[in-house]
Amino acid sequence: MTTTENSFMLGLDSNFYLKDDFESPEKRTNVTWFYPKICGFQDALRTEQEKAEYFSFLDRQTHPQQTDILLYFHIPFCEAFCNFCACFKESSAKYQGEQRVRFVKAMVKEIERNARSAYFQGTKIKYVQFGGGTPSALDQESMATIIQAVHREFDLSEVDGISLEGSPLGLSTDGYIEMLKSLGITRISFGVQTLNEEIRRKLTIKATVEQVYQTAENIRKAGIRTFALDLMYNLAGQTDEILASDIHGICAELRPSFVQTYRFNQWEGTRLDKQIRAGKVSDVLPSGSIERVQYRQIKESLADYGYDKQLLINFFTHLDETGPIGLDHACGGNGYRASYTLGIGPAAENYMGERSYRNHTNVDRWIKDVEDGIIPIEQGRICSEDEVENRVMVFFPVFGTVRKADVANLEKYRREINWMVDSGYAVETDEDITLTEVGRENAGNIAFLFYSDEEKARARRTMYLSLKNKRNPFHQDEMNIPRTPVFLQSKLATRPADSSTGPKAG
Questions:
Q1: Residue 78's beta-bridge partner residues?
Q2: Which Pfam families does the entry link to (predicted)?
Q3: What is the pTM of this model?
Q4: pLDDT tens for each residue of 362-372
């Protein structure tokens, strides 16, 4: 493949920024949602001694009270797999009966271990987020047990909200939404992605459009304070006309409190990537230029429907009083003492001060470690002071603005700030730095300006090692990566390339 086909790889090119082609269609990269990043190949904690030393802070110090805590739960189960999704997940059908009981008990034990550590004594949680996977794939009793444990073990007296991601498949179960509300859930979100039946089928989205509409209505009837819907763009086969129809259906008919927009990521080596390259999905293929056009179409169209308040780079609402939305805490709170994240569950990512770590991306191993009293992580590192200090500027493009008073060492970033202002990507006042419209369009690229040199090198190496080892670059796991049977590998390795079968992945 040509280098212009992989926007993620181009986004990791340390030479691309501060160049005239910053706005090149192929170079619009992902917004950063987790920083400092970790890598399964570079940050493995292999021995129990390494883990014990790494986590000794939990019992020897208390949490700095001036820093907010986001409590994140990763529920890795899905009723069906959407083939575009790179998140860690397992089939809910695989974890029933005794396996389901073991999982729930492990979640509760992990909650107790963290909440009862010295670090969290007296700590007030600011936001709780259930993600996945699909949390609503858990049955009502299992979900209730976990949420009740959160209320029992953590101090939620000043919590801004408790949010849960779901799917119409689980949320449409009788009484499920009402159960969530009774346990303090204040916000529900689920992915629509597109309302086009043909594209939904090719993306292997199992929930029907009818279920989408019914679930949205049920959330309103239950009196959940807010709910959000996800809209994807630059999907294979998603013309501007189809996108316009999607926007109309979401904004005029489903009428959520918030619309979250996500660009389609064609992760190299995944099943969907191979299908797209082979021409099996659509004649209209994802591209950098289409992505830019559709991003602008979304912003203009959402504003026309009254969703004219852009809270985050991808987060739009029609509400005047929005309240906390969770993602602001997930992205560090955009302040000098940026929010920390405590993650519980398989593949959950954590950030505790200078410590960045991830739980096992293997459900069975995670359960076994928790049962055995072992901290269930597979990788972690202690970040440099430089990287910790950079967080507020790395996350600033997510919010579109940053108060200069919240930046610990503003002059450290003077070269990048001056370049953004001179190039029309940002405006600087005495109080803050704010992205312009063209700056917001290039938010992912701008975030990358503020990565440390070490983090840029690590990101490039993560991509290289992921592709080399046939792993998903997102978590270095096997999500959506086709596995070739061992007995075929030697035959395929010696087979001549057939140029008649369409574009190749490498």
A1: 91
A2: Radical_SAM
A3: 0.88
A4: 999 999 999 99
